[in-house]
Structure to design on (298 residues):
């Protein structure tokens, strides 16, 4: 760990880590957060090198937002099943069916998909992005669950959802929730919007990983059941140590592919550099800029 910290300082590097990372990664990270927070941290950083502890689409986003910086991902094989649920060819065909629709892609998408979209959203700001668009018809992809949740909050627009899901969240079931509520009586249920609608309906609060932590801090309840990827329980316990947290979760093994050894190798040997083709990066950056424009007053 000390070697990582020394190399980070020597190389003028910053380490960004998603909330779902292993707890030991938190100790070397300069910023820990959800996708939106990590986007902002990447864009605002003055470091010349960014080591991104997350999955591929996140590291690509950091590279798109920081064309003058070098971005490395410690585990090249850290993928995302949700991001892989739509191809560029499929998206182009889908868009042809709805020529008047604005296309909003979840940040959990590849750079190629982002380049095909009008704007981007995260689980933190999806509702705000859709509300701010002038279009009455909105294509949302690739996550159907996030699209359905957004539609429930934006009644005056037609949301057309691509049929993709995050397997980690989709496989969290109402039966699992009922069992946890029986076991941890009196605990409030906080749920990620990537979960299925029949789980979201049971929630006391729905929000991104960072918003979950904010809610737990400010809410009067002393006990919470956290429904998302298993790594979040470590982060939220650290953020709000005075309260009790239980979890209904599944592991994202791709997130756990980042280890301290791999972070060290990334710093030491400059592996693995994230390269987004210029034309794709340029188009994807426009989609990011639109997101920031739509949410600037939020």
């Amino acid at each position: 760990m000390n070697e990582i910290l020394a190399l980070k300082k020597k190389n003028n590097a910053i380490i960004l880590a998603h909330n779902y990372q292993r707890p030991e990664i938190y100790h070397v990270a300069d910023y820990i957060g959800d996708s939106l927070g990590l986007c902002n941290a990447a864009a605002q950083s003055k470091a010349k090198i960014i080591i991104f502890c997350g999955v591929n689409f996140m590291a690509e986003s950091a590279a798109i937002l920081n064309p003058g910086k070098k971005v490395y991902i410690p585990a090249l094989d850290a993928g995302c099943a949700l991001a892989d649920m739509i191809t560029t060819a499929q998206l182009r065909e889908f868009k042809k069916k709805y020529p008047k629709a604005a296309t909003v892609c979840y940040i959990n998408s590849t750079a190629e998909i982002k380049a095909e979209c009008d704007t981007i959203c995260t689980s933190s700001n999806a509702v705000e992005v859709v509300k701010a668009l002038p279009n009455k018809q909105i294509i949302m992809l690739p996550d159907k669950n996030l699209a359905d949740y957004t539609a429930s909050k934006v009644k005056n627009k037609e949301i057309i959802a691509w049929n993709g899901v995050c397997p980690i969240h989709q496989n969290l079931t109402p039966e699992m929730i009922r069992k946890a509520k029986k076991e941890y009586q009196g605990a409030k249920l906080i749920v990620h919007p990537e979960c299925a609608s029949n789980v979201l309906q049971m929630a006391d609060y729905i929000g991104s990983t960072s918003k979950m932590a904010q809610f737990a801090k400010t809410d009067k309840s002393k006990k919470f059941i956290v429904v998302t990827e298993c790594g979040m329980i470590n982060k939220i316990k650290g953020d709000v140590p005075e309260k009790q947290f239980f979890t209904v979760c599944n592991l994202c093994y791709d997130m756990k592919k980042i280890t301290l050894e791999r972070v060290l190798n990334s710093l030491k040997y400059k592996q693995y550099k994230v390269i987004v083709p210029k034309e794709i990066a340029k188009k994807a950056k426009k989609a990011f800029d639109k997101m920031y424009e739509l949410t600037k007053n939020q």
Observations:
- The radius of gyration is 19 Å.
